[in-house]
Design brief:
Blueprint: E1 9-18, E2 26-36, E3 41-46, H1 52-60, E4 67-72, E5 75-76, E6 84-87, H2 99-109, H3 114-127, H4 143-156, E7 161-165, H5 173-190, E8 193-197, H6 201-207, E9 210-214, E10 221-226, H7 241-261
Parallel strand pairs: 3-8, 3-9, 6-7, 7-8
Antiparallel strand pairs: 1-2, 1-4, 4-5, 9-10
Helix pairs in contact: 2-3, 2-4, 3-4, 6-7
The chain binds adenosine-5'-triphosphate.
């Protein structure tokens, strides 16, 4: 596999130490090695504080590693780029703009004429099943709809890589399940590279080609678990014994650390 192609990511020996003012420094990540193939769907799980969000911010270029290097599409990551789009847990939509203008925002910011940007935004809204909501305002949408708008907004700039930081964490359990199936449907259309952070092991296994399990602080790659279930996947997969076995395996890798993070040793 050629990781220097668009969408490929190489994380090589990456460490990140925070130096907060007037507090002890925090080694959040240490010696992380990871390669992601173009078009691959990778999920990252780990106990609270294992450095999942930090890893994602490094991949985006929002922060710079203390040690090691990161390349995306063969180029060193030195800062945020339109080639990579982030989706966060909270939706960050502008309440004063309509849904379509929220989705068009990144394109307009990049210099595109508003009419053209709205056209592209409308196409993206169709993809996420929200064409009818284009003229509504964010407050008129449910949480699940808002996160779909968020995904449409990330896709509108046509990035090579989508970085998602617990995008469904604020949703109720049923909406969350449906949203993960929706995300796979949207992803399968053009198979962008995805790195998806979650606390839910079953969500990770349902979505991913591989699940990266981080160990507790300092976070490092404990194991990379391949998930070979055929695609397209539907939610009934989650009720199969094979699925349960993969979930159990990952849970066994992090259970001690989750207990430790709760002071339960
Ligand atoms: N800006 C910062 N300054 C100092 N320490 C930080 C900073 N950001 C994160 N940390 C610390 O780095 C470690 C990793 O944090 P991070 O948020 O990446 O973990 P996480 O796995 O995403 O956690 P969670 O699952 O709880 O969201 C934690 O100990 C956290 O307190």
């Amino acid at each position: 596999m050629d990781f220097t192609r668009p969408g490929g990511i190489v994380v090589d020996g990456v460490g990140l130490t925070f130096h907060p003012p007037r507090r002890d420094s925090v080694v959040a990540l240490e010696n992380v090695d990871l390669t992601v193939s173009p078009g691959e769907f990778v999920c990252v799980v780990g106990a609270s504080g294992s450095g999942k969000s930090t890893l994602l911010r490094l991949l985006d270029g929002l922060i710079t590693p203390t040690t090691g290097t990161i390349t995306a599409g063969g180029e060193p990551v030195t800062g945020p780029s339109p080639d990579r789009a982030m989706v966060f847990q909270s939706d960050n939509l502008m309440p004063w703009s309509t849904v379509v203008d929220n989705v068009a925002y990144g394109l307009v910011l990049g210099g595109m004429k508003r009419a053209r940007a709205r056209q592209i935004a409308t196409t993206q809204l169709e993809r996420v099943g929200l064409a009818d909501a284009a003229r509504l305002y964010p407050r008129q949408l449910s949480g699940g709809m808002r996160q779909r708008v968020n995904i449409a907004r990330a896709l509108a700039v046509d990035p090579q890589v989508l970085l998602l930081d617990e995008p469904f964490a604020a949703l109720d359990a049923q909406t969350r399940e449906i949203m993960s199936a929706e995300l796979l449907r949207i992803w399968s259309a053009d198979r962008k590279t995805v790195v998806f952070i979650t606390h839910q092991i079953d969500e990770a296994v349902f979505l991913a080609d591989r699940v990266v399990v981080l160990s507790a602080r300092p976070g490092t790659v404990r194991e990379i678990v391949p998930v070979d279930f055929a695609r397209p996947r539907d939610l009934s997969l989650k009720r199969t014994p094979e699925f349960g076995r993969v979930v159990d395996h990952i849970w066994s890798l992090i259970e001690d650390e989750v207990r430790g993070s709760l002071g339960l040793h």
